[in-house]
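We both want to read discrete structure tokens more fluently, so let's practise on a single case. Would you write everything just below, so we can both look at the same thing?
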Amino acid sequence: MKNKLSSYFELETLQTTVKREVLAGFTTFISMAYILFVNPTVLGASGMDEGAVFTATALASALGCILMGVLARYPIATAPALGINAFFSYSVCVGMGVPWETALAGVFVASLIFMVITIFKLRELIIEAIPADLKYAISGGIGLFIAFIGLSEGGLIVSNESTLVGLGSLHVGTTWLTIFGLIVTAILMVRRVPGGIFIGMATTTILGLATNLIQAPERIVSAAPSISSTFLVALRHVKDINSIQLWVVVLTFLLVTFFDTAGTLVGLANQAGFMKDNKMPRVGKALASDSTAMLAGSLLGTSPVGAYVESSAGIAVGGRSGLTAVTTGILFIFGLFFSPLLSVVTPQVTAPALIIVGVLMAHSLSQIEWGKMEIAIPSFLILIGMPLTYSIADGIALGFIFYPITMIAAKRGKEVSPIMYGLFFVFIGFMWILNA
């Protein structure tokens, strides 16, 4: 069995092992397990049953991870994306007054369009048309973004009315838990200890339990909640998408998920060293995997599914094959029945891992031609835009809008591909719609 796994996932070629891949998959799962609890809370604001959303989230995530691992053979995990789930609940359902059943149908229609453009390789063409420098900027920007998430969730950075953000209070115990985890993980990484990120997370969890900063679960096993209230609801409400406003919602679901996933795939592929001649091998299979997961997720009862930046945590501990993603997918299935145990993985436990991964992903920034302003300006806007807008898609939009402008100003307009010129107009419309 072990030899078959090694052969199928080409572990020897990738210079990795089954043990390392399983550890990487576990690390990725621990880093993103919070979505099992966050997604039901966010979508619950739309009126959806939180228990059903919990189960739908776990199943959709598991399917996407396993497909990504088996078909595309990448160590990249998928799950319902943060940000777009908030748009689903607070903008569409609460803000526009759209019933959650209709919004879910909108996700279903968007996923069908997603699959069509994937089959015709339009998504693949767009990813390959992105200049190498902008891909490096996307990777580095995602690194800053997830580091910012880690600093925020760990309590080291907090909102501030005067300066927007500021240093968190050092009189809070959980903040010191984050600091402890960051110090331990940093030392392990500097000493090149295998699995340093995972060991840091485990050590932080143990300290949290010992000091009562993390509450021990009352039980370990529980039954998975019923999914009956959301299962196939999207199909029954497709007919309700009958206005321009609702089609704009569908388009927004499509665009945000498209560029969120594309940016994440490129960034993670750069981190893992998969990019070859500015192209991502097997990208078509990777895109087909996430679009299938998005379609399944809409039928199960959750917001759009996409590639997760937290996969970088697994890649950082050595994950290089699809076995990493398959392991994460299997753990999502087990997570259905061990939900009380997952509660010990608090934001303070995952925060140090996200910060360190941000450091690792910043390495790609050295590849950008900073000496050429026509490249530096759009690259910097992508880099700084992601954490400051709290959106991968918005950061990409800023850079892609400025890229043709700066290239034309530098009299290099002929080097810009037709697709990039097309994306210039797409993103202007995208920004207009989102900020209408």
User: Anything to note?
Assistant: The radius of gyration is 21 Å.
